[in-house]
Amino acid sequence: MKIPNAFLILAIFRIASTITIAAKVDADCKVKTGLGQALIGHSFSSFTVKDFQDCYQECKANEPKCRSMNYNGDHKRCELNNATETSHPQDLKEVPMSVYFESRHRVSAGSQRHVAGKTCQEILSREESASDGFYWLNSNDTEDPYVSFCNMTNGGDISASYDLIFLDRNTTNFVELNTSLPDLSAFTVCFWYRAWARQLVFLSYATSNMTDAIMMFLSETGLFRFLVLNKQTHSHTGTYNDRVWHQMCGKWTDSDGFVHLFVDGELQIRGDTTIHGVIPGTGKLILGQDQDTFGGTFDREQSFVGEMSHLYLWNTDLEDSVIKSLSMHCKEYPHPGYILRWSDFSTGINGNITKRDNSRCVTKQDVLL
């Protein structure tokens, strides 16, 4: 009985030595091993190899799908696993002449272009440590991999992650909110856009007796106009129809009466006159068109052309510092307390507008190399 045990110890020692050599392939590699153990029930590929080194290289070649591996020195059998002992500790079993190997320094799914995931859910299923953030995705074979925000807190659900693409100027292209708003004595509205032209309306909110209760507009000369309760403020802010994603926030409160408009977190408009009153909640909110009459009479030359994403409305005037922080990352659910969210606009789409899932809206801070 002692002789087989001696052979087992020698075999395991040789495998352990091979592990050390293999780990040196990556200088910063941190590994977790289990001598005389194997992860059971998670193998996606099983085959014969010459030695442990070959098994290790096969796992490396199959990253990020290969999360760990089992090598049996007696049968020279290699098993590639799509899970780890970290996520499934109950499945690590005693198996004589086997070794379990888990690399802690590996290319994570979605972390680089060449390991783009098809969906956020797929990345989450492969990476138990995946958290909210930006990842490389490749949801189909018709476009290059792209960067998109994945909300892993809600299981990778993308129902609120989409862009609306207004493909041309037309009075038939608009999005109408299908839910009602409360009366507003204060508000902040923020959204992201990528404009393809000047002289366009981002949004308008009209009531039966007030066509410009809220309206945000970019003129042909680059002048931003922000209307509240039919009163207009404006300021020249530069070029923002450059096909780059920009964030716009407008806020107002009846208490002080001043309107403020921010572009990319920077204050661009501060009204020099006060506007007081209450915005009635019986109106229509429309994206992409100016309502010259309640719910209609659009002007083709002012219709929005470009992309829009992540519009949220709060019934309070957010602090300037909060608006600044919101401009750093383009993502859904940017700040709590909203009364209107981007997913509310997934219906009510009219005309030549494309709804593109997995938002492509990113900032310089969000670009992954």
TrEMBL record:
Disulfide bonds join C190-C249. Its cofactor is Ca(2+). This is Uncharacterized protein. Keywords: Calcium, Disulfide bond, Glycoprotein, Metal-binding, Signal. GO terms for molecular function: metal ion binding. It comes from the Eukaryota. The keyword DNA-binding does not apply. Residues 29-105 form the Apple domain. It comes from Pocillopora meandrina. InterPro entries: ConA-like_dom_sf, Fibrinogen-like_C, Neuronal_Pentraxin_Related, Pan_app, PTX_dom. PANTHER family: LAMININ G DOMAIN-CONTAINING PROTEIN, PENTRAXIN. Residues 160-361 form the Pentraxin (PTX) domain. Residues 1-22 form the signal peptide. SMART domains: PTX.
